Amino acid sequence: MLESGQMLSRLRHPNREYTIQRAIRRTAAPTTMHQMALRIRRLEETLCRVAPRWFPAAAFFRFCIVALVLGIPGAGVLFLLVEYAGIHYLVAGVINCLGMTVLSYYFNSIYTYRRFIGTGGFLRFFTSRVGSVALGTLMYVLLTAAFGLWYLVASLLSAAFANLLTFALSHLWVWSSRPHDLRLVSKRTGGER
Questions:
Q1: pTM attached to this predicted model
Q2: Cα 75 to Cα 96, 144, 160, distances in angstroms
Q3: C-alpha to C-alpha distance for 76 and 73, rounded to whole angstroms
Q4: Is 111:64 a contact under the CB 8 Å cutoff?
């Protein structure tokens, strides 16, 4: 049996050898955070290429990354609040939701949109997030009680729905450059609005 180095040395066509080496490098697990960040960036660029022009693919991808990065520790905090702190699961859910909303606003401001929009922006984000969670909860109840869907599948579907709704509201209302932001700019620049 040939070693991988011998196999590559037998393929002397330069383009073929480069392609094989590149494929081997891409399949190896990332060893550093920098390599992981590069792979996430490549995935983001690929999604931007295949998405329709009207869809903000880069912002959506980053928004989902923030949701995943915060969702996993959020589930752990919820577990700790219920199991070890002895807090009722509904109260723990509200505490977790409020904490994750603040962190989500902060990380989306830094990573997704790369700008802070002040207290008014936070209040718009908080309103959109609470509304999305309320509609997601309603969808969860409907899917489990009315349609008899298994609770874990219903939970995943309702969480995905709430995340999509939060993204749409955030992109179109919270971090947009619509007239509510333009009024602030026109006051600073002295322009009439």
A1: 0.67
A2: 8, 21, 15
A3: 5
A4: no
Whether 111 and 62 have beta carbons less than 8 Å apart is answered as yes
Phi, psi of 71, deg, nearest 5? -70, -40
Query: pLDDT tens-digit profile of 85-127?
Result: 988 887 888 888 889 999 999 999 999 998 888 888 999 999 9
Report whether 157 contacts 146 (CB < 8 A): no
Backbone angles phi, psi at 37, to 5 degrees: -65, -40
Residue 190 CA to chain centroid, in angstroms? 37
Residues 192 and 20: their CA atoms lie apart, in Å, by 61
Q: Token digits for 86?
A: 């002895």
CB atoms within 10 A of CB 58: 14
Q: Pseudo-torsion of CA 153, 157, 159, 164, nearest 10°?
A: 160
Estimate the crossing angle of helix 33-50 against helix 57-83, to 10 degrees: 130
Which whole number is the average pLDDT over 19-33?
60
